[in-house]
Amino acid sequence: MLLLLAEYLQQFHKGFAVFQYLTLRGILGVLTALILSLWMGPWLIRTLQLRQIGQAVRTDGPQSHLSKSGTPTMGGALILSAIAISTLLWADLSNRYVWVVLAVTLLFGAIGWVDDYRKVIEKNSRGLPSRWKYFWQSVFGLGAALFLYMTAQTPVETTLILPLLKNIEIPLGIGFVVLTYFVIVGSSNAVNLTDGLDGLAIMPTVMVGGGLGIFCYLSGNTNFAEYLLIPYVPGAGELIVFCGALIGAGLGFLWFNTYPAQVFMGDVGALALGAALGTIAVIVRQEVVLFIMGGVFVMETLSVMIQVASFKLTGKRVFRMAPIHHHFELKGWPEPRVIVRFWIITVILVLIGLATLKLR
């Protein structure tokens, strides 16, 4: 939106041409979303408190969590609002990737909003039934996958790229739709499972989003892509604005979500942010790198799968409680220790993911 205004004003002053630079608009995306989050945060928390939209806490979990009962939730609406406004202000709105990522984010956020609404407003402990949640995730995930497949302009956009192996590229054909579906839906649910402690999910999301933003910028530049032997995806660079907005909104939310949290993200935020990361990774053809950088999300998801499978097959539990962050709490780790150590792990994994840019 503001990019169009800057292009118009260029005829009066050449200085407005600076807004054509992706790096500048990416930075402005970060700052705009951060300011919006910090500005709207106190109002949102007060509104949620007045409407008594508070988190219900499981009684079978760590006893330290019982004090969190009633803490305002659905704070993910703050993140999504800041991301959407910042992206619409600074991104090139003629870019199809911007619209597909923004649409996936908001649509998955709508699923989470319905689930949270039924839990905290209608006092329905089941929220949105799992089968309907998965149904709508599948609809939106497949919709995004089909859109990306049908609008692909070059063969590389539907090719599987393996990091570290520069000469191996696997054309997926219609299999691209299947892979994209699993990446988007899987990452959405993985972030949602991770969102169980104060700040545990949002900071890894910010870090992974930043890492993917670098891939977007490099993949959208023909010179960098050729030098680094990564797929050149025309138009992908514009997603650095969305990634910047995600970083700014996430950091702004963390201001209120850090231990002890004043507000929780809720499914409205977790499902949306996970889907956004998955969609971006698919566009820049870095699904495997997302798996590496989002290792904490993968670990949380696998812990739940292992726990469920073990209990059904043997009647025994592998972990004291799943997802795995609760296991460490029940072992005696204070909540801040679990959170910060998971953050440290994510920093290392994101650096490993970025290292694949050169190790080929």
Short description:
By secondary structure, this protein is mainly alpha-helical.
Folded structure, characterized:
This protein has helices at residues 2-9, 22-50, 76-90, 96-120, 130-150, 175-194, 202-219, 222-228, 239-257, 267-283, 287-293, 295-314, 324-330, 335-355; strands spanning 159-161, 169-171. It is an all-alpha fold and 360 residues long. It has one domain. Strands 1-2 form a two-stranded antiparallel sheet. The two termini are 39 Å apart. Its main location: membrane. It is found in: Cell membrane; Membrane. It is a multi-pass membrane protein. This is Phospho-N-acetylmuramoyl-pentapeptide-transferase. Keywords: Cell cycle, Cell division, Cell membrane, Cell shape, Cell wall biogenesis/degradation, Magnesium, Membrane, Metal-binding, Peptidoglycan synthesis, Transferase, Transmembrane, Transmembrane helix.
